[in-house]
C-alpha cells in the first residue's frame, strides 16, 4: 500500500486510541456525578443538574469511545457464516460491507451537523454552508462577527436549561472520528487483500 | 409501496446485511438510514441522528455501563474465589454436590451483576477446572455453568431487563422483582435435576471423600477479623433508627463516617479481634462480601433514598472499593475492567442507537402496523397462539442473533403487540428473558454455546457442549411453561412490594 | 390526484392521546377519506419530544400537537406555553385570550418567523401536584423532585421544588425508581387516565394555573400545499379537539375529586398559597422585562385578568 495510506491508518489508530482511552475514564466521572446526586439528595437539597449532566457524560463516553471499541473488536458481528471464513474472505467481504457502515455513519453525521446548526440558531436547509460561512467569518472578521451570525441558541427543555450545542458538537466530532476509523479499517482490509498487513 | 412490502423489505434487508458478518450496528443502521432516505420523504435522513437524542434522554440506560463495570470488577478481581470454596467444602460430600454448589455460586454472582457473561467467566475459570479435576463428567459441568450463568439476567440487577423496560416502557424496579422468584425457581429446578441425575449415575458427580476435605477441617491460617467499629455500627445504627433516636438519613451519614473510621483503624490491634477457626467455618463468612455489595446497592433503592441509576453507581463503587480493600485491584485488573467496560458499553450503545433509528423509520413507514395487522387480523390467531408463536420465533432467531440485537430489533415489534393482546408486560418481560436464554444455549447456534467453547479447556469439544445443554434447556422450558401457566410466580413479588 | 399523507406526532402518550387528539384525527381521516390521511404517532415515538420542533420545521414530521414549552420552540412565546403561573383560572379563559384578546396574532407572527404554521391553541387542564407524600404547607414542597414544565419548574424552584424533565412515557417508571417524588403536570383527570394515580398517593387541590394552552402546528410548506377546504377541515377538527378537552377536563376534575378512589386530597391554606400567587406576579414582570414580545403577552394577560376581576361573579369570586 502507498506510504501515505499507511501513515493515515497509523495516525488515525493512534489518535482514536488516545481519545478512546480518555473516554474510557469518563466512567469514573459518571460514577462521581451519580454519587454526588445521591449524596446531595440524601443530605442537602437535590441538585438540578446531575441527571442531565450524567446523560451528557454517557453520550461522550460511548460516542468518543466508539472508534477505540472498533479497534478492540468489541462490536459484535453475526458470525453464522463469517466465523468460518478465511482471513482473506473476511477481508474481501469486510472491505465491501464497511462501505454500508460508512453510509450509515455518513447519514448520522449529516443529521448531527444539521442538528448542531439548528442548536446554533440556523433554521435553513444548508447546514454545511452555514458552518462554512461561520468559519470564514471567524477567520476573516473575528469572533464578534461570527457570533453575530448565530441565532437563537437551543436550550434543553428542562428547568436547568443547558445549551445544547456543546453535546451536539461532541456528537458530530465522535461520529466523524468513527468515519475516519472505518476508512482506516477499509484500508487495512484492502492491504490484507494485497498481502500487506498493517 | 404497501406497508407489508416495506416491512418485508426492511426486515429481509437487515437479515441479509447481518449475514455478511458486518458489525451488527452497521447492518441495522444502514438499512434504516437507506429506507429513511428513499422512502420517508422530506427529512428522513435526520431520523438516525434524532435517535441519539432519544437514547440520551432515556435515563435508565445510565445503569448499563455501571452494571457492566461492576461485573468486570467482580470477575477480574476474583473476589468470588472464597465464595466458590465455601460451596465446594459444604456441598462436596454430597453426590453431585460440587455442581449443586456451582449453581448456588451462580445465584450469588447473579445478584451482584447484570449480565450472564460475568457468571460464565467466573464459572469457567474457577469452577470448571476444579470440577474436572475431581472427576466430574464434563457434560454435566459445562451444562451446569451455562445454565447457572443464565440466571445473571433474571436475578436482579439485570441489564437485559433494563433494556426491555426501555422498550416496553415498564418500571425497571417491578421487572427486576418479577425476575426474582422465577430465577430462584429455575435454580432450584437445576439443583433437583443435578441431584437426581447424580443419584442415578454417581460416576457423573462423585462425592468428595473425607481425605479430600481434610485440609478444610484444619484450623485456618487466616483469621476472621472482627473489627469493633464495624460490629458496633452493625448493631447500633439499626437500633437507634428503630428506637427513633435519629432518622434514617442522618443514620446513613453516621454509618458512612463509621465506615471511614473502621477503615482507618483496621490495622490497629486495639480495634480488632482475630478469631481462628476451622477453614470450613471461616469460609462461611465469605458470603458476607457479596451480600454487603448487594445490600449497599439495593437497600437505599428499595427504601426510596436513592434512585435506580444512583444505586447502580453505588453498586459499581462498592464493588470497586471491595476489590481494593481485598487487595485484588492491581494495575492489570483495573486496566482490563475499565477497558472492557468501554468496549462492551460501546457495543451495546451503538447497537441501541442504530436500532432506535431503524425502529423509528420502520414505524414511521407503517411497517409496524403491517405486522400487527398480519398477526391479529390476517392470520386470525388467538392471543395465546400468537404468544407461543412469538416465543418460538425467538428461539429460531436466537440461533443467529445475539441478545442485544434480538432485544432491540425484535422486541420493539413484539412488545406493543403483546400489550395490545391484553397480556401483562411485566410478566412478558420474564417470559422474554427466559426464552432468549434458552435460545442462546440451544444447538446448533447459540451465543452462550460459543462463549462456553471459547472459555472451556481444549478437551471439551463443541459436541460435548451441545450434549451437555439439552437436559438443562429442557428444565428451562419447563420453568418457562410454569411461569406462563402461573403468572403469579413472576408477579407476586412486585405486587407485594409495590402494591399500595 | 394522489392521496396526501401526513405524519403527526403528539406530546401525549397513547392513553392520554385517546382523549386529547385521537378522536379529532380519526374524524379528519374519516371525512377526508381518499384525499388525505393523517397518521398519528405518540410521545417520543418517531422523534424525542425535545427534537419535535426541529423535526417539524425540517419536514421530518408534518404536524405536531404540543405546548410551546415542552417542544422547546425557539420563539419568544415558548415561556407562555405549558403552564405560565396563574395566567388563567378557568379553561374558558384560554380561548378568550387567544381569540378575543389578541394572543393568536402574536403566536402567528412568532411562528411565521421560524417557518412553522401555528394553527390554533386550546385549553388544557389545571396544574396540580400529585405526590407520594402529602403536601399540606409550602414547606412540604422543599426538596421534592417534581416532573413539571420547564417554565413552571423555573417558577417553582423558588419554593424549594427541584424540577425534573424526563420523557413523558417514563414518568410512571420514574416515580417507581425514585427519580421523582411527584408530578406537577396536569389535573386529576390525567393523573387517573395515564396511570399516575397508581404511583402517587396525594393530590394537592391548590393549583398554579387553572388551565393553559396546547396548540396544533404544521410545517409551513406542507400547510401551504393543502387545498383550502382541507385546511378548513383540519382547523375544524382541531376545534373539535379543543371542545372535547373543555368538557372532558372540566367534568373529570370535579368527578375524580369527589369520587376518585386512588388519591387523597390535601390543601394548603389560602393565605399561605397567596404568597405563591404574589410570587407569580413578580415572575410575570421578570419575564416581561426579557423582550418586547414577552412584554406584549404579559400586558394582555394582565389586562384580561383585571377585566375578569371587574366583571365579578361568576368570572371571579373575591
Ligand atoms: Na443479575
Ligand atoms: Na440457539
Q: Indicate the radius of gyration of chain A in whole angstroms.
A: 21 Å
User: How is the main sheet of chain C built?
Assistant: 6 strands, mixed
Low-confidence stretches of chain C: none
Order of helices and strands of chain C: EHHEHEHHEEEHEHEHEEHHEHH
Largest sheet of chain A: none
In which range does the helix fraction of chain C lie? 40-55%
Strand-residue proportion of chain C: 15-25%
* Helical content band of chain A: over 70%
Determine Rg of chain C (CA atoms, Å): 19 Å
Give the largest chain-chain interface (CB within 8 Å). A-B, 59 and 72 residues
How many angstroms separate the termini of chain C?
59 Å
Ligands (ions, cofactors included): sodium ion
Number of strands of chain C: 11
Classify the secondary structure makeup of chain A into a structural class: mainly alpha
| Extended strand count of chain A | 0
Helical segment tally of chain A? Answer: 8
State the assembly state of the protein chains.
Answer: heterotrimer
Structural class of chain C: alpha/beta
> Can you give the mean pLDDT of chain A?
92
Main location (chain B): membrane
Subcellular location (chain B): Cell inner membrane
InterPro entries (chain B): DctM (IPR010656), TRAP_DctM (IPR004681)
Domain TRAP C4-dicarboxylate transport system permease DctM subunit (chain B): 12-489
Provide the descriptors you would attach to this structure in a database record:
heterotrimer, A: 198 residues, mainly alpha, globular, B: 500 residues, two-stranded antiparallel sheet, 2 strands, binds sodium ion
Amino acid at each position: 500500500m502507498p506510504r501515505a495510506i499507511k501513515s493515515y491508518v497509523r495516525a488515525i489508530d493512534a489518535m482514536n486510541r488516545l481519545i478512546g482511552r480518555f473516554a474510557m475514564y469518563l466512567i469514573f466521572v459518571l460514577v462521581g456525578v451519580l454519587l454526588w446526586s445521591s449524596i446531595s439528595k440524601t443530605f442537602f437539597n437535590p441538585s438540578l443538574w446531575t441527571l442531565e449532566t450524567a446523560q451528557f457524560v454517557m453520550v461522550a463516553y460511548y460516542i468518543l469511545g466508539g472508534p477505540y471499541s472498533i479497534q478492540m473488536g468489541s462490536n459484535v458481528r453475526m458470525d453464522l457464516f463469517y466465523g468460518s471464513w478465511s482471513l482473506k474472505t473476511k477481508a474481501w467481504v469486510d472491505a465491501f460491507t464497511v462501505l454500508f457502515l460508512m453510509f450509515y455513519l455518513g447519514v448520522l453525521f449529516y443529521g448531527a451537523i444539521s442538528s448542531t446548526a439548528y442548536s446554533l440558531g440556523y433554521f435553513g436547509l444548508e447546514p454545511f454552508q452555514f458552518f462554512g460561512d461561520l468559519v470564514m467569518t471567524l477567520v476573516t472578521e473575528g469572533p464578534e462577527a461570527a457570533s453575530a451570525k448565530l441565532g437563537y441558541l437551543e436550550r434543553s427543555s428542562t428547568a436547568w436549561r443547558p445549551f445544547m450545542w456543546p453535546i451536539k458538537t461532541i456528537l458530530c466530532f465522535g461520529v466523524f472520528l468513527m468515519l475516519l476509523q472505518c476508512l482506516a479499517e477499509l484500508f487495512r482490509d484492502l492491504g490484507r487483500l494485497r498481502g500487506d498487513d498493517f | 409501496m404497501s406497508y407489508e412490502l416495506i416491512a418485508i423489505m426492511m426486515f429481509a434487508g437487515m437479515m441479509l446485511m447481518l449475514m455478511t458478518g458486518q458489525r451488527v450496528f452497521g447492518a441495522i443502521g444502514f438499512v434504516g438510514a437507506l429506507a429513511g432516505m428513499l422512502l420517508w420523504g422530506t427529512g428522513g435522513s435526520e431520523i438516525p441522528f434524532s435517535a441519539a437524542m432519544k437514547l440520551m434522554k432515556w435515563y435508565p440506560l445510565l445503569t448499563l455501563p455501571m452494571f457492566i463495570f461492576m461485573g468486570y470488577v467482580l470477575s477480574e478481581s476474583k473476589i468470588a474465589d472464597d465464595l466458590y470454596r465455601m460451596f465446594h467444602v459444604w456441598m462436596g460430600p454430597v453426590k453431585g454436590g460440587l455442581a449443586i454448589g456451582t449453581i448456588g455460586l451462580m445465584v450469588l454472582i447473579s445478584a451482584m451483576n447484570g449480565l450472564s457473561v460475568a457468571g460464565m467467566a467466573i464459572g469457567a475459570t474457577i469452577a470448571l477446572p476444579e470440577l474436572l479435576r475431581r472427576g466430574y463428567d464434563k457434560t454435566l459441568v459445562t451444562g451446569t455453568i451455562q445454565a447457572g450463568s443464565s440466571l445473571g439476567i433474571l436475578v436482579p440487577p439485570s441489564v437485559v431487563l433494563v433494556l426491555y423496560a426501555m422498550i416496553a416502557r415498564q418500571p425497571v424496579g417491578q421487572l427486576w422483582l418479577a425476575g426474582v422468584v422465577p430465577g430462584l425457581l429455575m435454580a432450584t429446578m437445576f439443583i433437583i435435576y443435578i441431584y437426581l441425575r447424580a443419584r442415578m449415575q454417581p460416576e457423573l458427580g462423585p462425592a468428595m471423600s473425607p481425605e479430600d476435605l481434610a485440609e478444610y477441617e484444619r484450623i485456618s491460617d487466616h483469621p476472621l477479623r472482627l473489627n469493633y467499629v464495624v460490629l458496633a455500627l452493625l448493631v447500633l445504627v439499626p437500633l437507634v433508627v428503630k428506637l427513633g433516636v435519629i432518622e434514617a438519613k442522618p443514620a446513613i451519614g453516621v454509618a458512612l463516617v463509621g465506615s471511614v473510621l473502621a477503615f482507618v483503624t483496621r490495622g490497629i490491634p486495639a480495634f480488632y479481634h482475630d478469631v481462628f477457626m476451622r477453614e470450613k467455618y471461616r469460609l462461611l463468612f465469605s458470603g458476607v462480601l457479596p451480600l454487603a455489595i448487594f445490600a449497599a446497592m439495593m437497600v437505599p433503592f428499595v427504601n426510596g433514598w436513592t434512585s435506580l441509576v444512583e444505586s447502580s453507581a453505588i453498586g459499581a463503587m462498592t464493588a470497586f472499593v471491595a476489590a481494593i480493600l481485598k487487595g485484588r485491584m492491581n494495575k492489570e485488573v483495573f486496566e482490563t475492567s475499565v477497558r472492557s467496560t468501554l468496549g462492551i458499553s460501546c457495543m451495546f450503545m451503538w447497537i441501541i442507537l442504530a436500532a432506535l433509528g431503524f425502529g423509528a423509520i420502520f414505524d414511521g413507514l407503517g411497517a409496524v402496523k403491517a405486522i400487527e395487522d398480519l398477526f391479529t387480523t390476517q392470520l386470525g390467531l388467538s392471543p395465546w397462539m400468537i404468544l407461543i408463536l412469538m416465543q418460538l420465533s425467538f428461539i429460531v432467531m436466537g440461533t443467529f442473533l445475539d441478545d442485544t440485537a434480538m432485544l432491540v430489533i425484535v422486541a420493539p415489534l413484539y412488545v406493543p403487540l403483546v400489550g395490545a393482546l391484553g397480556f401483562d408486560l411485566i410478566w412478558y418481560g420474564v417470559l422474554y428473558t427466559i426464552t432468549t436464554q434458552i435460545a442462546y444455549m440451544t444447538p446448533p447456534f447459540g451465543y452462550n454455546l460459543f462463549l462456553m467453547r471459547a472459555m472451556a479447556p481444549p478437551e471439551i469439544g463443541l459436541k460435548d457442549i451441545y450434549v451437555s445443554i439439552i437436559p438443562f434447556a429442557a428444565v428451562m422450558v419447563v420453568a418457562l411453561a410454569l411461569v406462563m401457566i402461573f403468572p403469579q410466580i413472576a408477579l407476586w413479588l412486585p405486587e407485594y412490594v409495590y402494591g399500595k | 390526484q394522489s392521496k396526501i399523507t401526513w405524519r403527526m406526532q403528539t406530546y401525549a402518550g397513547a392513553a392520554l392521546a385517546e382523549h386529547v387528539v385521537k378522536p379529532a384525527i380519526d374524524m379528519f381521516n374519516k371525512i377526508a377519506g381518499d384525499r388525505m390521511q393523517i397518521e398519528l404517532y405518540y410521545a417520543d415515538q418517531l422523534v424525542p419530544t425535545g427534537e419535535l420542533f426541529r423535526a417539524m420545521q425540517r419536514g421530518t414530521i408534518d404536524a405536531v400537537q404540543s405546548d410551546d414549552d415542552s417542544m422547546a420552540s425557539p420563539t419568544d412565546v415558548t415561556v407562555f406555553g405549558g403552564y405560565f403561573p396563574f395566567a388563567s383560572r378557568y379553561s374558558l379563559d384560554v380561548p378568550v385570550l387567544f381569540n378575543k384578546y389578541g394572543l393568536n396574532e402574536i403566536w402567528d407572527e412568532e411562528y411565521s418567523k421560524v417557518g412553522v404554521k401555528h394553527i390554533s391553541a386550546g385549553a388544557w387542564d389545571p396544574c396540580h401536584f400529585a405526590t407520594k407524600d402529602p403536601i399540606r404547607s409550602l414547606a412540604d414542597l422543599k426538596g421534592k423532585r417534581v416532573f413539571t414544565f420547564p417554565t413552571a419548574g423555573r417558577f417553582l424552584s423558588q419554593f424549594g421544588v427541584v424540577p425534573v424533565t424526563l420523557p413523558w412515557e417514563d414518568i410512571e417508571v420514574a416515580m417507581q425508581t425514585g427519580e421523582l417524588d411527584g408530578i406537577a403536570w396536569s389535573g386529576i383527570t390525567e393523573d387517573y387516565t395515564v396511570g399516575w394515580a397508581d404511583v402517587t398517593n396525594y393530590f394537592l387541590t391548590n393549583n398554579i394555573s387553572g388551565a393553559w394552552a396546547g396548540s396544533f402546528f404544521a410545517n409551513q410548506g406542507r400547510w401551504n400545499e393543502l387545498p383550502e377546504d382541507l385546511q378548513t377541515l383540519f382547523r375544524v377538527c382541531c376545534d373539535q379537539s379543543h371542545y372535547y378537552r373543555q368538557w372532558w377536563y372540566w367534568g373529570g376534575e370535579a368527578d375524580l375529586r369527589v369520587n376518585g378512589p386512588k388519591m387523597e386530597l390535601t390543601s394548603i391554606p389560602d393565605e399561605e398559597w397567596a404568597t405563591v400567587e404574589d410570587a407569580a406576579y413578580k415572575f410575570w414582570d421578570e419575564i416581561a422585562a426579557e423582550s418586547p414580545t414577552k412584554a406584549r403577552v404579559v400586558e394582555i394577560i394582565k389586562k384580561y385578568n383585571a377585566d375578569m376581576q371587574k366583571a365579578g361573579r361568576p368570572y371571579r369570586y373575591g
